[in-house]
Specification:
single chain; Helicase, Ruva Protein, domain 3; 10 helices; 7-stranded mixed beta sheet; binds S-adenosylmethionine; 38% helix
């Protein structure tokens, strides 16, 4: 078969480094009792090891050329299914089995929509071990004591335990990307990190709090919820926070307290 040329528009940077591949699959905890969903198998660098180690592998690949290539390579295996589709258009409830794990070197142009889709509606997924751009991994795994903390950190840490596992240099890929990558693991918990009275309102407060990092939380709340200064400051101080605090300093439980107070 002719060499498959990588399509930049589909975020195709293929992993070349066997030790990185082994590390991803090992840290994901893949074994003979594991069912895996792989997003974007590409040329199959990670897939090759997954089909060796996992009980079952379902891969979703958007690119027809890569789909046909993988059908040829692994289509005969009992424990491998490949679907030629866009993961963002795929009904996960039809392919995710209980306790399935995601292992993927994600296409970077749609990392956030993919993570958001999986975290919001996991359909029984147990964990996501995924390669993303280092900056994105830092943001997702940050807490309120770190500078990368933002709305996406709150969202992911609300649903999952998050851990940045290791970084991967550009040279591990072909073609070589301009950015450094990192592998992170998001493990779904039975319970959310906090229990706000109104989840939708909790996330509205988070969104408003991070809407302008140069503004204090009181200014953000005034603007986002049409409050007077007195009302905004009253809510903030009732949570035991300084009236000049910025949104990025609030922990998940601070956001929960604030949101619950606003719902009273
Ligand atoms: N897993 C391979 C590896 O590690 O070498 C390829 C990773 S490459 C960064 C991303 C892969 O995701 C490509 O194969 C690309 O075609 C695929 N992809 C891009 N957008 C996709 C989408 N919306 N749905 C499913 N796969 C997608």
């Amino acid at each position: 078969m002719a060499k498959i040329v990588a399509k930049k528009s589909l975020g195709q940077n293929f992993l070349q480094d066997d030790s990185v591949i082994d590390n991803i699959v090992t840290q994901a905890g893949v074994n003979k009792d594991t069912d895996v969903l792989e997003i974007g198998p590409g040329l199959g660098a990670v897939t090759d090891l997954l089909v060796e180690r996992a009980r079952n592998v379902v891969a979703v690949e958007i690119d027809d050329r890569l789909y046909h290539n993988l059908v040829k390579k692994h289509g005969h295996r009992d424990n491998f299914t490949i679907i030629n589709a866009d993961i963002l258009e795929t009904d996960l409830s039809k392919i995710v089995t209980d306790h399935m794990i995601v292992v993927a070197n994600l296409p970077y142009y749609i990392t956030t929509p993919i993570i958001t889709k999986l975290v919001e509606n996991p359909c029984g997924l147990k964990s996501l071990t995924v390669m993303v751009q280092l900056e994105v991994a830092k943001r997702i795994c940050a807490d309120h004591t770190q500078k990368d903390y933002g709305a996406i950190s709150v969202f992911c840490n609300y649903h999952c335990d998050t851990e940045l596992l290791f970084t991967v240099p550009p040279e591990a890929f072909d073609p070589v990307p301009k950015v450094t990558s990192a592998v992170m693991k998001l493990s779904f918990r039975d319970e959310k990190a906090v229990a706000p009275k109104n989840e939708k309102h909790f996330f509205s407060v988070v969104k408003v709090a991070f809407s302008n990092r140069r503004k204090t939380l009181s200014n953000c709340l005034m603007q986002g919820f049409s409050l007077s200064r007195e009302e905004a400051v009253g809510l903030i101080t009732a949570c035991g926070l300084s009236e000049t605090v910025r949104g990025e300093k609030l922990s998940l439980s601070d956001f929960c307290k604030l949101s619950d107070l606003m719902c009273e």
